[in-house]
Write a structure and sequence with these properties.
Chain A: This is Branched-chain amino acid ABC transporter permease. Chain A: Its main location: membrane. The complex is a heterodimer. By secondary structure, chain A is mainly alpha-helical. In chain A, 72% of the residues lie in helices and 2% in strands. Chain A is built from 15 helices and four strands. In chain A, the strands form two sheets. In chain A, strands 1-4 form a two-stranded antiparallel ribbon. In chain A, a hairpin with a 2-residue loop joins β2 and β3. Chain B is an alpha/beta fold. Chain B folds into two domains: 154 residues, P-loop containing nucleotide triphosphate hydrolases (Rossmann fold); 81 residues, no CATH class. In chain B, strands 8-9-10-5-11-12 form a six-stranded mixed β-sheet, sandwiched between helices. A four-stranded antiparallel β-sheet of chain B has the order 4-3-6-7, with helices on one face. A two-stranded antiparallel ribbon of chain B has the order 1-2. The longest helix of chain B has 19 residues. The radius of gyration of chain B is 19 Å and the shape is globular. The termini of chain B are far apart. The chains are: A mainly alpha, B alpha/beta. At the A-B interface, α7, α8, α9 and α10 of A face α2, α3, α4 and α5 of B.
Chain lengths: 358, 269
């Protein structure tokens, strides 16, 4: 009733292969975009930006990046934290070396730099797969964090060993540093997220996406029918690295402002993003959004319920939070191993027929 | 024979497309294929038969570049083929299906068929990222070809279905569609009728004959069902324990004493 595709006919292959083939979906997507770009910036405040929206936007970019690698190309990676650190440090170096260039360029360059690093650490994937590849990427995680800790050039020889984002503006509006207004940082991240999601969707519905999925589903058969495994795997690492690098750069410059590498980009970050991808749904762009939203919102919701509604002491709530998040993840994986995206698909199937299921 | 021959049913067979010259393939001490030579001619349906473990699938794997033989040469279009990776072989116009279905289970039927056309898709990463220009034009053009194949094999109704949900017989047909989408010069079918009932076998036989007839595709197939092999194929190679024991038209092979011995066994007295 609410959700129908009857009468929604396609007359060309362009129409059939568009991102949202069903009209209802398309309008809902436009509505979400309109709210995100035209409504939220006017009602946003510092709490919403810093506790929910900014982490959601930035983690969503990282989750899309990792989903391309793990969900679409089937190459397991535990190096996400390290690759985000590459994005952050590249962004920092570009910001301090070329202060006159726009922040947009810095973030994109940071993405490009991470793509290169990611390809280098992706080279073992040509020989090994599965758990062994996961261990190889784990090496990337530890090596990169060690590198940024030990080589002073990366943090410009600062005494604390931290990097902190200098104040930068875009079109006269501050977007980094303590004086940046909430809506500006939000808009800056939102623009990148929108672009990343569009690019990811375009890549995954086309030629390169098919060769990634072919490698994921059956690598030997894929090679025999004409997929170049070297090209497919390394482009997956490059594209994934590009997105993860962008998210790392935003995480450092726009969200945190100052970063200590082991703390911000440690192994826990790798697992967090991997959980987002798994809970959201492997091989789904929507799933990346859903997973990021779930893991960003869950602690906030638990805190609100525990502290504000039930009136429990903060430290107890903080401990319970860990237990509950862990338990929920396990429940989730048992009930719906294909993630939130699959729940969403099932709901859509049901809604198509509602209220007359037969 | 150099310029081809006319089959019993009047089809004209052309020159040699692929020639296997003294192929020997060993895995450690095991000799899978021993000094085998045969040719495949343009437009013909060439069967490879033999008991289990005779080395038939290994032979197809040699043709598609997955195994590299220790001795011998593969000649393609009158030239010895240099050693190349399987995907390069595919780009030369050799497509195949597999004994145990090797479809991409997580993708829709349409995406599987489109994957078969990868060698024709040349647009760059940047163009694809924006879904503009060459990438979009290429997608539509190749979609048209893919749809023709889908039409031809009568799988329009499952176009958007994920492959994992399909029954076995349809999966086999989708796999054929994926191979055909490459518009191959040589199509290799590894047991296209394994595990099918009589009706499905009839359907599949009809498709194989139609493919050969309509697109003029050269086909090499492995099959265990002798009735099917004798009806479909123009010439048959018989293998046993890695050796070639017979080669010729179905009638010649049927009356070949070595072949009868291999299949029925030789009495001890």
């Amino acid at each position: 009733m609410f959700y129908r595709e009857a009468g929604d006919f396609k007359t060309s292959y362009e129409q059939d292969s568009q991102t949202f083939p069903i009209k209802f979906d398309r309008f809902r997507y436009y509505a979400v975009l309109a709210i995100a770009f035209l409504v939220v910036p006017f009602v946003i405040n510092d709490y919403w930006a810093n506790a929910i929206l900014l982490p959601f936007l930035i983690y969503a970019i990282a989750a899309i990046g990792l989903n391309i690698l793990v969900g679409y190309a089937g190459q397991v990676s535990l190096g996400t934290g390290g690759f985000m650190a590459v994005g952050a440090y590249a962004c920092y170096k570009f910001m301090t070396m070329m202060p006159e260039v726009s922040m947009f360029v810095h973030v994109l360059l940071a993405g490009g730099m991470t793509a290169i690093v990611c390809v280098v650490f992706g080279l073992p994937s040509l020989r090994i797969k599965g758990f062994y590849l996961a261990v190889a990427t784990l090496a990337a995680q530890f090596f990169l964090v060690w590198l940024f800790n030990r080589v002073p050039w990366f943090y410009n020889y600062s005494a604390s060993g931290q990097i902190s984002a200098p104040e930068r503006d875009v079109f006269g509006i501050m977007i980094t540093g303590p004086n940046a207004p909430a809506w500006a940082t939000y808009m800056f991240s939102l623009i990148f997220l929108t672009l990343c999601a569009l690019v990811a969707r375009n890549l995954t519905r086309g030629t390169i996406g098919r060769s990634w999925m072919a490698i994921r589903d059956m690598d030997i058969a894929a090679e025999i029918i004409g997929v170049n495994p070297l090209k497919a795997k390394l482009t997956a690492f490059a594209v994934s690295g590009f997105f993860i690098g962008i998210s790392g750069a935003l995480f450092f410059s726009v969200y945190l402002g100052a970063v200590e590498v082991g703390e911000a980009f440690g192994i826990t970050k790798s697992f967090l993003v991997l959980f987002m991808v798994i809970i959201g749904g492997l091989g789904s762009i929507f799933g990346s959004f859903a997973g990021a939203a779930f893991l960003v919102l869950l602690p906030v919701v638990l805190k609100v319920v525990g502290v504000d509604v039930l009136g429990w002491p903060t430290d107890i709530v903080a401990h319970f939070q860990l237990v509950i998040v862990g338990a929920l993840i396990i429940v989730f994986l048992i009930v719906e191993p294909h993630g939130l995206a699959q729940l969403w698909r099932v709901a859509k199937e049901k809604l198509r027929l509602w209220p007359f299921p037969h | 024979m150099q310029d081809g021959y006319i089959t019993e049913d009047g089809r004209k067979i052309g020159g040699v497309v692929m020639e296997m010259k003294n192929i020997t393939l060993r895995f450690g001490g095991v000799v899978a294929i021993k000094d085998i030579s045969f040719d495949i001619r343009e437009g013909e349906i060439r069967a490879i038969i033999g008991p289990n473990g005779a080395g038939k699938s290994s032979m197809l794997n040699v043709i598609s570049g997955f195994y590299v033989p220790q001795e011998g040469e593969v000649w393609f279009h009158g030239k010895p083929r240099p050693q190349m990776r399987p995907y390069e072989v595919a780009q030369q116009g050799i497509a195949r299906t597999f004994q145990n279905i090797a479809l991409f289970e997580g993708m829709s039927v349409l995406d599987n068929v489109m994957t078969g056309r990868l060698s024709y898709m040349k647009s760059g990463l940047f163009s694809q990222a924006l879904w503009k220009g060459k990438a979009e034009a290429e997608e539509v053009a190749n979609r048209e070809v893919a749809e023709k194949i889908i039409d031809f094999l009568e799988i329009q109704h499952i176009r958007k279905t994920p492959v994992a949900r399909l029954p076995y017989g349809l999966k086999k047909r989708v796999e054929l569609a994926r191979a055909l989408a490459a518009e191959p010069k040589l199509l290799l079918l590894d047991e296209p009728m394994a595990g099918m009932n009589v009706e499905e076998k009839e359907d599949m036989s009809r498709f194989i004959l139609d493919v050969n007839d309509e697109f003029g595709t050269t086909i090499a197939l492995i099959e265990h069902d002798m009735g099917v092999v004798m009806d479909l194929s123009d010439r048959v190679v018989v293998m046993d324990y890695g050796k070639k024991i017979g080669d010729g038209t179905p009638d010649e092979v049927r009356n070949n004493q070595a072949v009868i011995d291999a299949y029925l066994g030789v009495s001890s007295d």
